[in-house]
User: Fold this.
Amino acid sequence: MTNSIGDIEEADCILITGSNTTSSHPLIADRVYRAKENGARVIVADPRRIHIAHIADVHVQQRLGTDVALLNGIMHVILEQGWQDQEFIAQRCEGFQALRDTVKQYPPSTVEEITGVPAQDIERIAEIYARAEAASILYCMGITQHTTGVDNVKSLANLAMLTGNLGRPGTGVNPLRGQNNVQGACDMGGLPNVFSGYQQVANSDANNKFASAWQADLPDKPGLTIPDMMAGLEDGSVQGLFVLGENPVMSDPDADHVGKALQKARFLAVQDIFLTETAQMAHVVLPGVSFAEKDGTFTNTERRVMRVRQAVDPVGDARQDWEIIQQLSNRLGYPLDYSSPQEIMQEIAGLTPSYGGITYDRLEGHGLQWPCPDSEHPGTKILHQERIARGLGLFHAVEYQPPAESVDEKYPYWLTTGRIYTHYHTGSMTRNSPTLEREAPEGWMEIHPQEAQKLGVSTNDRVRIVSRRGSVEAAAFVTEDINPGTVFISFHFAESNANILTNPATDPVAKIPEYKVCAVSLEKAA
Assistant:
């Protein structure tokens, strides 16, 4: 997030897109409700009428995969009306003319044809957002999990810069991280192309710094993404896989294909706290520890590094995750000799400029937000305040591109996926909670009454959903909260895993799969 969670309450306008905020981030949703009570206008752009849409001043249900067109249409109106922040653009941005030339091709009438959003709603969104004193954008994986995910994010950044909504309280472009400490995992180099603090492995200075600190020769080319790993297992170029706290048999697209790839691994090890569907396939399972058994730090969605203290002893044979990794490294021939998480954090601060001033002593209380470069720095609540981090904010001229696959006569319905309020991700934790499992013991498929009537199904009838990759069965839930021609399934349930259906096509830059849109057929199950 460029801004902070508490900052949301200071917004005069909040644009929520690609985020089922109440289900996936209820504490952040609470901030939105407070902002609304303080007079903020709320805009929701989501193909479903999600819960938070009920408080929206404007809610639009764009067709799946048309976010770039919608955002270009909003910016077209802003420029036509002269509502842009020309001073901010002139002083702090570059590439404006290319953006102007591109969005000129997206008048509301054209965008309505692409997105299904009425032109007058596009105009109303543009006015509310652009004329607010402080406008905040909240988004999540409904924006990123597309073959145009990077383009979607760039378009949101364009909108914020166009209106000067960066670097001030109540503004910003604020991605809501999908899992606990996923921000921290990325910060620590849990990506194939970077060291900690997003220092590029291909950068010779960064590479030499880490090679010297670790006394090892380090590769200067990025590693494999998860789709590349699965492809490698299939063609034999990858022989083994170590999976830590992940459940790809459930969470990756075209899940049947993923399972077949994992079966080809000569060696599969899984480190987790429950025997997940992936762990059940493993040659070796290493029992790690839950949050309550850990000591260390988590970094949350607002870049806040917080202390985590062990509350209970590890269960059974479980060990600390860092100790398991250290012992594995020692047995594989690279010696590690850390004595505690605190010692590891000291090394992180020494090698990671954005974490340079973060120590355990300074994390007492509410923690610190990076960048925090030195011991005197108070942490950074809002990014890009004095200047854009790269120097000048770069506008990207982004053209609309349709999803990777289309509906046709054989697969006439669109499918989108997501979460429900009672469960989390692949259900490996929440489905082990008797209370949460009792609330939602099985998955369902949302379908509009118009489509349900065509199929002859009612709520709770079983429906078979088929894509170009596989099929699942789920109970129907007939609702007007979803557009005709579109259905929705969550991916929490192994019994009706939506990711058996989803498309493994990826964004060319980020390599994230297109979980949020694919073509399916429907039939009433026996």
